[in-house]
């Protein structure tokens, strides 16, 4: 690997005697890992990622695109080290009604993890500032299927106006990416000392902008995928001194290979590829000590319509008495009742691009069920005609091809693969119109000859 000279000088002095082992690890193959969706998949009998309950290593990197269960949201392909954030949630966020913000969330690896470990009465706001990336985030959150999530597309400064609103904020900051050199060799060409400095300054701006949205005593998990101290320990120190916080310890087990902070004065957690099976990663957990007022609630205008819910819509959702049902224009949604006030407040301040479960759209006398309902962990599949397809038909469906269904009634049919919902079709007799979202479809035509089933 062609490492920049300045990177070598700086990282050698950081690692000392470990430098040779580190370079050797960078020249070895990067491990492939996945995290299963506990609401959709069973535990696997594979090598476990030690610091999470649902992460596994795969023996090689398969073609995920051609595994239908990947599209069904049964698992997420995620770099192993970053799954460590689960420990901060398990050790400090225990149930209850917790408002969580994942500020820099696209494509959604950490958000899907948080959605799994947070309690059912907690709210997750996943935000991404870049619009195109926010759409990918919304797609991944929809596939994961958790109803108590909202996806927003805002600048940190705008979210900062939600004064004292959040109990927990994850800032997985854009960084110089040194920890990804092995996975993405292109990242080495973008690296420079000047860029490290720019990243550090941008991280501080992001942190300062979002700080007011965290309540006093609230927790902030700061993480990067880079090794240098500038963007890591120095920024943690900066948060403590400039914004007002204390650093909290996270318990780690001896055998995990996690390295400590490079500052004696506070704990932090570092992952190096020669010590742990994963890429480079850094994180530290902070508790806000500075005072924060709380947002004055405006009288929110009721934007949802009072129109009558399409008659069987409620029956599409399991446990429907714990949801509120509402429409926006012709689209119907279900959102956990307990969190609905929070949603209203968020909508009055932020640009929400996806929320809860979108059930479907009324068109004339027809109600067209939505992809978000198909992939929701709360879909009441018993109330739909379902049709389980084989691998070849599943790939055709995900490529948005027209399906021919044998002996099926006319109307909306939920297509499943190995009994996991993939999406809807509208059967019109001689053929079934494919309702899979156009922008999600598999574009590659290089369909493998043999089935791909990863879990
Ligand atoms: N947390 C994500 C995950 O686990 O999948 C990865 C996040 S990535 C390290 C950092 C994200 O920050 C990127 O999606 C990037 O678009 C976003 N970003 C870039 N500049 C930003 C800014 N000024 N404020 C907030 N987010 C920014």
UniProtKB/TrEMBL annotation:
Span of the signal peptide: none
Q: Which residues form the active site?
A: 225 (nucleophile)
Task: Name the family the entry cites.
Answer: Belongs to the class I-like SAM-binding methyltransferase superfamily. RsmB/NOP family.
Gene3D superfamilies according to UniProt: 2.30.130.60, Sun protein, domain 3 (3.30.70.1170), Vaccinia Virus protein VP39 (3.40.50.150)
An MF annotation (GO) of this entry: RNA methyltransferase activity
Name listed for the protein in its UniProt record: SAM-dependent MTase RsmB/NOP-type domain-containing protein
- InterPro entries (alphabetical): Methyltr_RsmF_N, MeTrfase_RsmB-F_NOP2_cat, MeTrfase_RsmB-F_NOP2_dom, Nol1_Nop2_Fmu_2, RCMT, SAM-dependent_MTases_sf
What keywords is this UniProt entry annotated with?
Answer: Cytoplasm, Methyltransferase, RNA-binding, S-adenosyl-L-methionine, Transferase
- Which species expresses this protein natively? Dysgonomonas mossii DSM 22836
A GO biological-process term? RNA methylation
Listed binding positions for S-adenosyl-L-methionine are 104-110, 128, 155, 172
């Amino acid at each position: 690997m062609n490492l920049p000279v300045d990177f070598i000088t700086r990282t050698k002095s950081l690692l000392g005697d470990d430098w040779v082992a580190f370079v050797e690890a960078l020249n070895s193959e990067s491990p492939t890992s996945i995290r299963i969706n506990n609401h959709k998949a069973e535990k696997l009998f594979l090598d476990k990622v030690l610091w999470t309950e649902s992460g596994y290593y795969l023996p090689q990197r398969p073609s995920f695109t051609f595994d239908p269960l990947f599209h069904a949201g049964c698992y997420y392909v995620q770099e192993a080290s970053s799954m460590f954030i689960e420990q901060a949630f398990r050790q400090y966020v225990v149930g209850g009604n917790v408002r969580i913000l994942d500020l820099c969330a696209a494509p959604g690896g950490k958000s899907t993890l948080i959605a799994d470990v947070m309690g059912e009465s907690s709210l997750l706001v996943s935000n991404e500032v870049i619009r195109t990336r926010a759409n990918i985030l919304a797609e991944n959150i929809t596939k994961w299927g958790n109803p108590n999530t909202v996806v927003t597309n805002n600048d940190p400064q705008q979210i900062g106006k939600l004064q004292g609103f959040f109990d927990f904020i994850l800032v997985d900051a854009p960084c110089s990416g040194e920890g990804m050199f092995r996975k993405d060799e292109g990242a080495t060409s973008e690296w420079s000392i000047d860029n490290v400095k720019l990243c550090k300054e941008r991280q501080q701006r992001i942190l300062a902008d979002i700080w007011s949205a965290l309540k006093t005593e609230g927790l902030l998990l700061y993480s990067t995928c880079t090794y240098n101290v500038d963007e890591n320990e120095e920024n943690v120190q900066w948060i403590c001194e400039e914004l007002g916080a204390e650093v909290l310890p996270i318990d780690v087990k001896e055998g995990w290979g996690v390295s400590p902070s490079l500052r004696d004065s506070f704990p932090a957690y570092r992952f190096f590829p020669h010590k742990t099976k994963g890429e480079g990663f850094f994180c530290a957990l902070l508790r806000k000590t500075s005072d924060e007022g709380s947002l004055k609630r405006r009288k929110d205008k009721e934007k949802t319509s009072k129109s009558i819910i399409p008659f069987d819509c409620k029956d599409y959702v399991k446990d429907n008495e714990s949801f509120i049902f509402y429409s926006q224009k012709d689209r119907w949604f279900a959102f956990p009742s307990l969190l609905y006030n929070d949603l209203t407040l968020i909508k009055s301040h932020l640009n929400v691009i996806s929320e809860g479960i979108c059930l479907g759209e009324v068109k004339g006398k027809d109600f067209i069920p939505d992809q978000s309902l198909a992939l929701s962990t709360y879909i009441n599949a018993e109330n739909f005609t379902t049709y389980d397809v084989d691998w070849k038909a599943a790939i055709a469906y995900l490529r948005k091809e027209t399906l021919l269904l044998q002996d099926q009634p006319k109307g909306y049919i939920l297509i499943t693969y190995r009994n996991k919902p993939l999406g809807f079709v509208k059967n019109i007799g001689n053929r079934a119109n494919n309702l899979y979202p156009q922008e999600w479809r598999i574009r590659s035509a290089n369909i493998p000859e043999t089935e791909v089933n990863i879990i």
